[in-house]
Design a protein that fits this description.
Layout: H1 8-11, H2 20-23, H3 32-109, H4 114-123, E1 129-137, E2 140-141, H5 147-154, H6 158-169, E3 175-176, E4 179-186, H7 189-200, E5 205-219, E6 240-250, H8 259-264, H9 268-279
Antiparallel strand pairs: 1-4, 2-3, 4-6, 5-6
Helix pairs in contact: 3-9
Amino acid sequence: MYNLDINFLRDRQPNQSIDLNRDFVPKKEPSLADKIPLALGTFVFILAPAITFMYLKNVQASTAEVKTEIQQIESEIADLGNQNKKIDAVNAELDTVQKETTALVGVFEKIKPWAAIMQEVSDRTPPGVLVESIQQTGGVVAPASDSNAAKDAKDKDAEDAEDAEAAEATPPPATDTTGINLAGVARSYEDVNDFVLFLQRSPFFNRQQVHLNEASLTSFPVEIENQDQLPKNATLEIPEGIKFTISAQLNNAPASQLQEEIEKKGSIGLATRLNTLERKGATLK
């Protein structure tokens, strides 16, 4: 192995020196163009937090404004809800009043104007007819339940059974057969027939349900006044009359439809009630 020793100092001249001024490179001052990126960076560094802060403030302000608007809207909705409740309460009261009024109208509509009916019979009685008695007949008849029909309906298929149950749930209306029986005497069969025809033409009676039930000869009821003052040999021939009975069923039309005729016959009470209900806005049938 060989070792090589080199001494560089030994080869250098003693008077040799290093020129520092020659080897040093002077540092240049940064120009304005060099400072622009630094200025921009500094500006962005300062401005970015400010912009972020302002944006957050605007978001907070907008959020608070939206919350205020939401609260205002919720308050208005609550007020509207209270108003709706009041409106519903008023509507419920109106419905109750309307139902009560309808029920009251229904009561008056079903009232039979007996005073007007008696006057009608009197006005339509021919001169040769004497009515001795008037009796009320019939009345409101509830519909009879048909058990056999219901049983047959249940034996059908499911759809027919449902229809039958729905029909059973809504019972048919009751039938009003209210009428009068007239009994009396007439001078002739023609007078009796005329009486039947006159009653059939009356708006208070059901034209199809006015019938002559009986007509037969009978002694005409004549009352003789001061009979003791007649001569002893005086004889009176009393003609025979016709004894009859007539049945007439009342017309089931509402009283409001007969209001004009009721007023003509002098039944002021019912007519006044109907007029009062009509003035107050009640709907008559």
